[in-house]
Amino acid sequence: MQNRKPLKKILCVWLILLLVAAGVFYFCFGRRQYDTYIMIDPGHGGYDSGAVGADNATYEKDITMKIAYKVGQQIQSLDPEIGILFTRTDDNVSWPADETADLLARITMAQEQNADYFLSIHLNSSTNPEAYGYHSFVRSNDPFSQDVADRIAANLEKNKYSYDRETVFTDQTPLMVVDNLSIPSLLFEVGFISNYDEMSQLKNPFVQDQIAKAIASAYVDTIHDLQENETNE
Ligand SMILES: [Zn+2]
């Protein structure tokens, strides 16, 4: 029985091969592709239409999806080093038809996918058909998102889009997706769907592009400033 290879040796070779294969797999699929990830959350979706427009036919969930997608595209074109995650990419939602479970699922997604920033996009609605303008909601202990909100407003002012209704701290107006995350989280209400003129603007692909650009460059500029400060320290 001289030809029989020692069992120990064979096992050893197989173990090494297995470790190499695991290493290659981790290198290709396991590591984070980007250093920074933004999770973009198009408000509502699926069973939940969100607010209904002044024309009784436009849904908040459809416009938030369009703008959110454009924001993701713009961020990637401004800085391909920033990874984009979405809570949903179309009208199909992965959570049950229940408002609390719905919001909780979005928060859990951001946590499980290790997002660095969270941006929720919504439209506003009022019984006053004249009400218009955009609003940012942030935590008072989140200077990053406050900075982003200021930059969005400055960019939109340059484009002469609508009107800044100012940044609101969630200490006064609690918001689940902002308050229950520890990462910087901003909920941006882009405009009033209940105002016929503003709704028409929000439905216009050209205006959507301008809004998306304003939001995207606000994020990219704030992230770049932060990275520069970190390298200077
Ligand atoms: Zn909403």
Please name the defining characteristics of this protein:
six-stranded mixed beta sheet; alpha/beta; 7 helices; Aminopeptidase; 233 residues
> The CATH topology, please?
Aminopeptidase
Gap between N and C termini? 68 Å
Bound ligands, each once: zinc ion
Residue-averaged pLDDT, rounded?
93
Low-confidence stretches: none
Quick one: biggest sheet? 6 strands, mixed
Name of the level-1 CATH class: Alpha Beta
Q: Count all strands and give the number.
A: 6
Cα-atom radius of gyration = 23 Å
Sum up the overall morphology in one term: elongated
CATH homolog superfamily: Zn-dependent exopeptidases
- Total domain units: 1
Identify the strand order in the major beta sheet: 2-1-3-6-4-5
CATH-scheme architecture: 3-Layer(aba) Sandwich
**SSE ordering:** HEHEHEEHEHEHH
Per DSSP, the total helix count is 7
Helix content bin: 40-55%
Structural class: alpha/beta
The percent range for strand residues is 15-25%
